[in-house]
Amino acid sequence: MTDHPSAARVTAIYEAVASGWDARRAQTLFERPWLDAFRAAMPGPVPSVLDLGCGTGRPLDACLADGGCRITGIDAAPAMIAAARAALPAHDWHVADMRALPPLGPYDGLLAWHSLFHLSPDDQRAAIAGFAPLAKPGAPLLFTSGPEAGEAIGTMNGEPLYHASLDPDEYRAVLAAAGFDVLRHVPEDPESGGATVWLARRHPAA
């Protein structure tokens, strides 16, 4: 577990910026190629998606909803969930921490874009192990990480903002142990704002 004090402040920081988050957060959908691949990996006209760390639901969940998905979003910041509920009232939104989820799922797809990396390395390992029962056999998992193992402290709203990452080989091992195969991994993807992106799939026979 990390000893860095900023790790305990992540939710409070996002709670404080929730009212202006949509103006702060890029709405250009540079993530669209990854979302399209994620959507294409799910079956049927109305696949169910669990977004772990959904924020206000925009723009990613709004895009997936436009593509026919039924969204369940969780976020530890109540103000973010309130904004998501107001923006996309036809979908399901819950205040919850991905480290202590209520009974949910399973789902046709799991999304953790720019959220998992706010957990400590130990908590990420546990969270990924916990993704398995949330995912139907064959369900895709789309998430972002850092490019290499370690902690990194950014800033938001004048406060230090915690990030952490496992080594890429460890992500592969942890995903495999949880029953996920890596389909694609792009470190620091220049088409996605420099995000390190992972697309995995729950074993079809799981």
Automatic annotation (TrEMBL):
Pfam families: Methyltransf_25. The keyword Zinc-finger does not apply. One of its GO terms (molecular function) is methyltransferase activity. GO terms for biological process: methylation. Keywords: Methyltransferase, Transferase. Residues 49-138 form the Methyltransferase domain. This is Methyltransferase. It comes from Roseivivax marinus. The lineage of its organism: Bacteria, Pseudomonadati, Pseudomonadota, Alphaproteobacteria, Rhodobacterales.
